[in-house]
Design a protein that fits this description.
The chain is of the alpha+beta class. 33% of the residues lie in helices and 33% in strands.
């Protein structure tokens, strides 16, 4: 990943926080037919042991897992907040006019070698934990055990598990840090005036990373 020094984010806790808040990762691998990519919801575990491990599952009908079964190296991309930035928000536009549009974003890329898991107990535990992690925010959480056991057993036969011990992780926060303070402030205010959650999230990041 192209990494200008002012956009690089090496703090492990910040990288992990993005993965947890945006767990739908794009799983990219190479097989006999070329590149494969699928969006997969992941869980990040074992962070106390180093860079951590990603756990997930995918449909057995998905051909990607067979390519992974040979021990393929993968790239998993987690996309955080992002938003277009207009030059109209820059103070520099009024001063010199020497500005162009850009796009702000936060992203984490993870690399590792996959282990494919077909053990039914591991799969059931994985599905339970993934479900519980997202249902816990709901007033009346749904649990896997709410469905008939024979139905869940049949569903589990249709998936395979994947585990990715992380061997490399990179974070990139392109949130206007390269602009002067007046421009950063203009971007934060401009984004804050936009009526969308994405703009609000990016405005908060520009303020935090820009020291405003």
């Amino acid at each position: 990943m192209y990494q200008p020094p002012h956009h690089r984010e090496d703090r492990r806790e910040v990288q992990h926080a993005l993965i947890r808040s945006h767990p739908l990762g794009l799983l990219i691998s190479s097989g006999e037919g070329g590149l494969l990519a699928n969006p997969i919801p992941f869980r990040l575990v074992n962070t106390d042991l180093g860079m951590g491990t990603l756990q997930a599952h995918m449909a057995r009908a998905n051909p990607q897992w067979r390519a992974l079964a040979a021990g393929a190296e993968v790239l998993v991309v987690f996309q955080g907040a992002d938003h277009y930035v207009t030059p109209a928000w820059y103070e520099t536009k009024r001063e010199t006019g020497k500005v162009v549009p850009t796009w702000n974003y936060a992203i984490v890329q993870v690399r590792g070698t996959v282990r494919v898991i077909e053990d039914s107990q591991w799969l059931r535990a994985q599905v339970n934990r993934l479900t519980d992690s997202h249902e816990s925010r709901r007033m009346i959480p749904w649990a896997v055990d709410d469905a008939p056991d024979d139905f869940i057993t049949a569903q589990l036969r249709g998936i395979v598990g994947i585990e990715v011990p992380i061997t490399a992780i990179e974070g990139k926060w392109k949130v206007s840090q390269n602009r002067n303070e007046a421009d950063r402030r203009g971007v934060a205010e401009g984004l804050g005036a936009e009526a969308s959650d994405a703009a609000g999230a990016m405005a908060a990041m520009v303020r935090e990373w820009g020291g405003l």
